Amino acid sequence: MRFLQIFIIYIKRTFRDKMFIIIMLVFPIILIWLLGNAFKGMIGDVNPSIAHADMLYNITDNSRNAQVFVDSLVNADIEMFKFSEEKNEDIAFEAVKKNQTDAYIVVNKSTITIYKNSVYSFNGTMAELLISNYADQYNLISTILQVDGNIPYNNKVSKPSYTKVVSIEKDREPGSMDYYGVTITSMFIFYGLIFISTYIIGDKREKTKDRILITPTNEATYQWGVIVGNVVILSFQMLIMVLLGIFIFNTYWGDNLIIPLAILWAELIMVSAIGSLLGMMIKSESVVSGVAQLLIPVLVFLGDGYVQLPSTGTFGIIKQISPLYWVNHSIFNAIYLNDYHNAWISISLCLGIALLTTLIILIINKVRRKAHG
């Protein structure tokens, strides 16, 4: 009964805290929106501006080179490249300068010349690679024909596709909203340790805990009431974040939502235990808040919470000390690869840290009971 009372009191006091609502619910939603839009087109999203390259071309004669160029490229209906004929060079050059077209190609008997804008060069570079690929194959065929001139040129054969982009399950590649929907959720669960630790410190400072312990309530009951209350609150916050992400930002959490939720739930159990321990060991709310504000961004950074960092070499090893590294990557592996191996590692790691922290709490409580008689 005492446990239940402490549990209910913690939940009521936390939900009355306006800062909890702002920091744990409102701010994450804003952050997902800001980062998702800021990095849109850089994390998995398809950028319409590079969906295809528009090219102008000019055929100056009726040579075999020109014939093969038209058959193999212009009439080949290559998905990423669109060709339009332009005989007026001045108009074509002006279009390239103003980035109205990605490249201008001039084809004559012996050469292919490509003009592109050096400032806006991505699509122009794609065009250059296409033409270079085509030229290499044309030169190879020409060399073979010089050796055996009896091999006929057949323009009826199927047109080759010189450039093709293939992506495995492209629809399931994480976009910016998908990425930050996951990483921001896991990050703000970690910020939950500030609320439980400052709650415990506040109770000690205001002597509320002493008044509770005067009643037939031992320290373990008080501690577990607060920890379980924090687990329930963070579970509620986690579910709201996931649901808001799905319905507002269309964040993809996979076909099996249970696995990502299980990973996040293991994380919040770990966070609740660590926060409780910090509340027992530290006497000042400002100190525990400062430690958390310093430590959490580092863990988030190492866990690829802000941007994807290199995973090779020494830095790749250092990253793995962050619990958020295992949380985030195990969620992404479960969602996009149906790989649950890292999920069990992440859950075991979080619950293992929570168990170790709980043992430390129990030892501290036992020592304190002996010290007080």
Protein described:
This protein is mainly alpha-helical and 373 residues long. The chain folds into 2 domains: 242 residues, no CATH class; 123 residues, D-Maltodextrin-Binding Protein, domain 2 (3-Layer(aba) Sandwich). It is built from 14 helices and 4 strands. It has a 4-stranded mixed β-sheet, sandwiched between helices. The two termini are 25 Å apart.
In short:
This protein is mostly helical and 373 residues long. Helices cover 65% and strands 6% of the residues.
Can you tag this structure with a few keywords?
D-Maltodextrin-Binding Protein, domain 2; four-stranded mixed β-sheet; about 375 residues; 14 helices
Q: What oligomeric state do the depicted chains represent?
A: single chain
Average pLDDT: 80
Straight-line N-to-C gap: 25 Å
What's the number of structural domains? Answer: 2
For the largest sheet, list the strands in their spatial order: 2-1-3-4
Radius of gyration: 31 Å
Strand count: 4
Low-confidence spans: 45-50, 151-171
Shape: elongated
User: Roughly how much helix do the residues carry, as a percent range?
Assistant: 55-70%
Going by helix content, strand content and strand pairing, the class is: mainly alpha
- Strand proportion, as a percent range, falls in 5-15%
Give the ordered list of helices and strands: HHEHEHEEHHHHHHHHHH
Report the total helices.
14
Sheet with the most strands?
A: 4 strands, mixed
